[in-house]
Amino acid sequence: MAxxxxxxxxxxxxxxxxxxxxANFKFMLRSSTPFDGxxxxxxxLAGSEVSGNGWTAGGETAxxxxxxxxxxxxxxxxxDISVTATGGSIGPAxxxxxxxxxxxxxxxxxxxxxxxxxxVGTDFKVTFDASGFEDNDNV
Length: 139
Known about the structure:
The chain has 139 residues and is mostly beta strands. It is 4% helix and 45% strand.
């Protein structure tokens, strides 16, 4: 399945104006959420949040770190997320949203390219590409 990452229309502006805190990101699972770049907050999204059975309502913390690549370059990367399904399955989820939890501003929409589910005792994993997220938008 091909994963597609899309920025919301205001994401670059928020980055350039330094309006984001790297300490306040969440990754929310969603189902049936058509991407519309004009959305600005989680409240404006259509579709259903996927949570329960181990996955936290509102999403899991998405830890972000910036590392130096060489003397004049840096790379931002989110730490991979893994949650074990307990008491039932996590999912199905078809997308994820990375948002700023301090003000619920949506930043990136990740389409999994299909439906993902983790059965009881299985981890629901979100793996971000180690080559960096912000510059290449790889997950």
